[in-house]
Write a structure and sequence with these properties.
- By secondary structure, the chain is of the alpha+beta class.
- It is 27% helix and 36% strand.
- It is built from two helices and four strands.
- The strands form two sheets. The chain has a two-stranded antiparallel ribbon with strand order 1-2.
- Strand 3 and strand 4 form a beta hairpin.
Length: 78
């Protein structure tokens, strides 16, 4: 599995490590992902999603059903 949030589509970014002498080497900034189980009362089932912590805050704010609906519209969740 790749390191991509299933609700927001966030994934790793590429940047540079910069040393004190200003030498630059490539590095990767991974998304802050966690694997979490959610209960969807409309479908009466549990779903396991790999979501970013910012998506988790959104789920707490608007609810899992609304977050899944929004992710389906954007094409991140099937």
């Amino acid at each position: 599995m790749s390191r991509v949030c299933e609700l927001t589509g966030k994934k790793a970014m590429v940047g540079n490590n910069v040393s004190h002498s200003m030498n630059k080497t490539k590095r990767k900034f991974n998304a802050n992902l966690i694997k979490k189980r959610f209960y969807i009362p409309e479908e009466d089932k549990w779903v396991t999603l790999k979501v970013s912590t910012s998506a988790l805050k959104t789920i707490n704010k608007i609810g899992i059903s609304a977050a899944l609906k929004e992710a389906r519209e954007k094409g991140f969740y099937k």
